[in-house]
Amino acid sequence: MQMINSVRPSGTCDSHFFTQRAGARVKYGVLGPFDVTLGTRNITPTAPRLRQILALLVVQSGRTVTLAELIDEMWGDTPPVSAQSTLQTYIYKLRKSLEGSGLDSSEVLRTRPNGYVLEVPDDCIDLRLFDRAVAQGRKALPEAPDKALEHLKEALALWRGPALTDVSAGEVLTAHATRLQADHLSALELKIESELKLRNHRAVIPELTSLSAAHPLHEGFHSLLMHALHCSGRRSEALQVYNRLRHALVEELGLEPSDPLQRAQQAILSGDPAPHTGPPAPLQAPAPQPHVAVTPAPITSAPASTVVRPAQLPPDPGPLIGQGALVDSAIRATGAAESMEEGVGVLLLKGMPGVGKSALAARIAHAVRDQFTGGQLYVDLRGSRPRATSPDDALTAFLHAAGIPEPYPRSLDEKSSLFRSWGVERDILLVLDDALTHSQVTPLLLDGMKSRTIITSRVNLYNLPNSRTFEVSPLGRAESFQLLAKAMGWKRAEKEHAAVELIAEMCGRLPLALRCAGARLAALPDVSPRQFAEQLYRDNRRLDQLQGADVSIRDRYLVAYDRLSGRERAVLRLLALLRQREFTTATLVGLLGCTEAVAETALANLVEHHFLHTVPTSPDGETTYSFHELSRVFARERMESELAEPRGGAPLANAS
Question: ∠34-35-36 over CA atoms, to 5°?
């Protein structure tokens, strides 16, 4: 494999990267088609999913790739409910593939508590060799351009084509590939700058002409071409290059060329003699970033307003019954601080449907809003709706609110970079309500040390930077009574205290359901709490009573239900028929006749979607599960619906 042969840095691979019989080195190539070789043998996995997973592990070698990153890479915004178990199956197959090639997979691919890490020495990966050679070239450039040119040519010789060109990449791997291509262009800039320092002006003009045509908005290549032409006595052509670039920037982005480029144009117009070393403006390319994070490449600086201060928070719900302690803790965590060590950058409010996450987020945001003078931004990501808000649409709305003029970059990475550039020096409070996935949230986060983000979600969003998670639980008995009494009237509630407490229990003590029940009682003054409680108990359509003009508990559950697999929906309906409130994995195994692993996976996904919850472990150590009050009601509705409209299908134990 020729990609490694052109660079021979010191150091060797650890012993476990050699076969026992011949000591052949295992080499990994991502700077072109994905390639894994053992000596002269190509051992690259052929299965698309295995190639995708291994490529991501190689790009981030030495760093733990979290389960959330792998799931986002493979399925994006719509992972199956069995994503984690399916991923574990792929990892098992990848280990078998490595072992079949003579490697000890337990040494190469290590399991970590929240993910996996590929432990590969740097000199066994072309990407690491490239980074090392570019760093050496950059260091040598000011004093020894000839040595710099040698290092940079070695680095560029490692490239065999577009990065990972034959891998079916998801969002995470695509971002890495984009970063690699940007680093390739940066290395090309440095190499040409080295040539110019050595006064090879005429020699680089053909290459620069091709690069400028291929990248019509790249100021670095155009500036270098202007300099090379000017130093070669082709002044008019240098000015034509500037005019073409300016026209493209104005038409595509609404931007003028940068100040250094404008100064270079003025120098050419005024007939200033061309310098003998280096281009007319500082053009040192940005250093490639270590390939350990999915951070989009920077784009041209964006216009930023110092006047526009968006104020988009939803109305303040006021004091929230039963949530005072949580609000106080969240305020302390979210409050602006001198440094991130004194506060958290991201606050995640996680909980089941109807538990009051959005109201809590609004309350917390209003309590700290005065500390964020740069503005407050809000977006409903609609994760509990059939169609979630895309990060691209959310970013467009944020850029409008920030007063940044159109047109905006077309790619999500560049649009995210523009938003972060605007917010980097501002103290911004960002509220992302009803988030669905990690990949939906990540492009919206700001990098600035002064900003804070509040996120609400039904699911746990793993690996958020500098974050703290608060679990939002149903109210206690006393708080549930207070909420109902406040809505229906205290005197009326106190008169039938026991009946009101029973209503609260049948609402699952969820704030949304309690408010719906309280509003219905307030609108029906002739119906006593006892009569209403009896109606809720006997009515097999209880969820009809617990909805308002624009809110519905049933709708919240339906979205989550539709995201379950066929097997998991069937399991949910079946469990709703059990007489006992609590059950274990063994209960489900007995009902379905399936394996324990199948039962555990189904139950775990039902917990993740808040249809079930775990209760304190039984004396024998076995996990015990239980329905939430309203999720049990919903599941029985679904069972009745299925019985009314029978459909053919596979047995439960085999359903997918």
Answer: 135
